[in-house]
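#lab-general

N.A. 3:47 PM
ok so I finally got the sequence cleaned up, no stray characters, all 461 residues accounted for. can someone with queue access submit it? mine expired

B.Y. 3:52 PM
send it over

N.A. 3:53 PM
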Amino acid sequence: MNSSSLLSQWQFGITTVYHFFFVPLTLGLSILVAILETMYVRTKNEDYKKLTKFFGTLFLINFALGVVTGIVQEFQFGMNWADYSRYVGDIFGAPLAIEALLAFFLESTFLGIWMFGWDKLSKNLHLAAIWLVAFGANLSAFWILVANSFMQHPVGYAEEGGRLVLNSFSALLTNPYVWGQFPHTIFAGLTTAACFMLGISAYHMYRKNQPNLFKKTFVLSTVVGIISVTLLGLVGHTQAQKMVQMQPMKIAASEALVETEDPAAFSVFTIVDQKTLDKKVDIRLPKALSLLAFNKLSGEVKGINELSAAMEAEHGPGNYVPNIFVTYWSFRIMAGLGTLIALIFLVALFRYYKKKLDVPFKWNWIFGLGILIPYLANTTGWLLTEMGRQPWIVYGKLKTVDAVSPSITPGMVLASLIGFTLLYGVLMVVDVSLLNKYAKAGIPEASEEPATESTDEKYWS
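B.Y. 4:20 PM
back already:
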């Protein structure tokens, strides 16, 4: 791999990690804020209006900085990955254009209407605006995942003149890979937002800062969190089963499975040399991988050696094994953190069930820790998805090393890599600082009085 390709990968990877820091919270929190406003409209309870505005402010902060990081990614396709854009632009560009012109336009337009429409629109119209924001945000994620799923599992194309061209738009929409990725991303967003709301609610409850108000969001986030993290695990399991057929090398690398096995054992702890594929340590549960892959105690899971030989026979000599260390541990960290999140929600549910929300809780810090855990899980999940596909940028069609722009130099990429990393680092500090400031500030005491136009304007300022 040449220096320009390696640096371009680092640049796009770092940009994506920064961007994906904001995305899941935007997806999930838009829905939770819409639920809060729905409760306000249905019950006429002013508490829900205060909570809607409070968490709506946090949503707006996160949304604004997420947009900034996302725009740069699309420019990189033309600047750093020109050969990729030339090869699949006819296909890849369609869902991205729809995302920008339809979904993002819908989301941003109605977000402005919602933000400035308090006491100017009827309650029902204002409620419709935030639901359209939530719909637009998640629709935006769908179209982006349609594009990404083509890279993971190409469908609906024909090869003409050394390029891939679209010959079936419906095939893109029915790609089985996207129908694993999309719900997984939505439930990850809801889980992230539920953890976020739970941690903030617990903070204010146990500091006696309007605790009766924040009990409502404590309970809401607990219920949504348990449902979403459960569905997240089930969808993830189904997604992994599909991957056994669509991307068997990713599964083999994530299990450090060197040789084909039937029944296949699940790795508890394995260390494999990347170059020689020799196992330094190998502790496994017999038949467990077959059970996970096929829901039965038998079933062949292909190993790295067999898959590499098949790739070489089809595509020529080369190294077709992704980074085993990154793929193996990304999967385990993601799954382990998902389990930990589920336990945190169960603790919250237990306290609610036992009617102990008013009782001091010495382990209260775990709810604050729960805010951070989904971000680590989301990042490792993305690393598994993208790193496990290597060396392909379009699986089985185009290698990453062949997709980089031929005219760029390592110096150009290094300069922009350093610049983007520092700039996004500053933006992330700003985002975390603003979220921390407004989350800890709580709901202004003035909002305890019946809301008026002047107090609403003061709140949003």
